[in-house]
Every structure is written in structure tokens, then in C-alpha cells.
Amino acid sequence: MKRQELEHLIRAAAAITNEYELVIIGSQSILGALPNAPSTLLKSMEADIYPLRHPELADLIDGAIGELSPFEERFGYYAQGVGPDTAILPAGWEQRLIKVQNENTDLKIGLCLDPDDLAASKLAAGRGKDKNFVEAMLEHGVVTSKSVQERIELLPVEPDRKDALVRWVAAREPEQQPIKPEPGYDFDDGMGDDFDLSR
After folding, report:
1. How many angstroms separate the Cα of 90 from the Cα of each of 93, 96, 129?
2. Whole-model pTM above 0.90?
3. End-to-end distance of the chain based on CA atoms, in angstroms?
4. How far apart are CA 65 and CA 73, in angstroms?
5. DSSP letter string over 86-103?
6. Rounded to an integer, what distance in angstroms lies between the CA atom of residue 171 and that of residue 71?
7. Could you give the strand order of the β-sheet that contains 78-81, starting from the edge strand earlier in sequence?
8. What would the pLDDT profile of 38-74 be if each residue is shown by its tens digit?
């Protein structure tokens, strides 16, 4: 998936649900922080999306622009409507979301996971493809071993599970510097009250 394709999905999902803000979880949320992410991280043609204020409307996304829909047949990528409980995420992830908003999203807002939160979530899921994704993130310097280990400590899982995940990451620490964001790219750290997910 390319960044402009994710933006198209944000625009389409917003129109379908009549919602202004959408949360993107899963692997392709990496495109929020890194519009030109390494190609090994962009193999999926699916974005997991739910409306921020009304997650129950995610079924509308599945029906209109989901897998096997005319939308996918035409464009070659699709959105999967998910819920807030789909992913296991580190405490405080809501305050670290990265905003995607431009003319291609029709000024609607897509909120993508911070890369370290994404990596920790993938490890919590524990599937082979998830671990491979995190290995690629580490190899390309998208995240560091230290930063991912810190996010693992914030996961709502048992201490033994945390320890096992920390050891797994530590054993795969590459000698590489993190990728720098594009010059002038706005991570919008001050998200403010507009993005308070507790509402």
C-alpha cells in the first residue's frame, strides 16, 4: 500500500460513515509516521480502520470498501472495519497517534499508530507474520530495540509475557540508526482535546 492509497481509504471511510476522524491500526498505520516507509513494510493491501467517535459504524466500512468489494476490485486495496479492542496496545497510545489530514483525505482525519506502539502491538498479537513485520521494522531502523522494549512494558499483558517479548526484541537488535522522518513532516505532537478518546 502507498501513502496516497491510505489517504483514499480515509476519505472513503469518512464519506461512508459520515465521520470526521478515523483510527487506523495494523501494519499500514506505519504510513502515518513514514509516508515513504520501506517496501517490506507495505506488502499488505488492507488498512484496519474504525471511526473514532462511533466504532460501531465499522461494519459500514467492511460492506462498502472491504475485502472482495467492488472497491477492492477496482483499486486493488481495501479497508477492514475493526473495533477498538482488535489490537492489544500499550498504555497511552491514544496520546501518541499521528494525524494524517490533507486534500487527498478531503480534510478528514486519519489517526495512525506511533511506530513503537505498532511494533509492541504486533508482538502482542504474536503471529508469525507480526513478528516478521517487527523484525523488518528493526532491520530498517524504523524503531529501536530500546524504544520497543519500553512500549512492551506498557502492554496490558502478564509480566511473564512482557519478559518473553523483551527478550525476543533484545535478541534481534540491529546496528542501524532510526529512519528520520521526511523534512518538514508534522507529527502533530500536540493533539489536544480534539483527540481525547475517552469521550
Report:
1. 6, 10, 20
2. no
3. 31
4. 10
5. SS---TTGGGG-EEE-SG
6. 42
7. 78-81, 46-51, 21-25, 109-112, 98-100
8. 999 999 999 999 999 999 999 999 999 999 999 999 9
